[in-house]
Design a protein that fits this description.
- This protein is mostly helical.
- The chain has one domain.
- Helices cover 64% and strands 0% of the residues.
- The chain contains 4 helices and no strands.
- α3 crosses α4.
- The N and C termini lie far apart (63 Å).
Length: 94
Amino acid sequence: MTRLSLDTRPEAERVQIELLRQASPSRKLYLVGQMNLTVRTLALQGLRKRYPYATSEQLRRRLADLWLGSELAARVYGPRDANEVEGCPPNPLP
């Protein structure tokens, strides 16, 4: 059997695979949901680091670009804010 994870001992990997095989469909779906939440959280953290002055709304819109692709995100959520400047603090003047 091909190993899936090089940083996990083969015996531990066999146990993990067996536990996944025995898991109910609802348990597997729950695990997928948790993984998606983790990926979303990590992606948002990365965006916050790259765009420290972006608002929460701007970050969610950028996440949509990553998740859906820019074209589909623009169709679903509309274009990104035209006044948004890459990585710069917002202009406090009107």
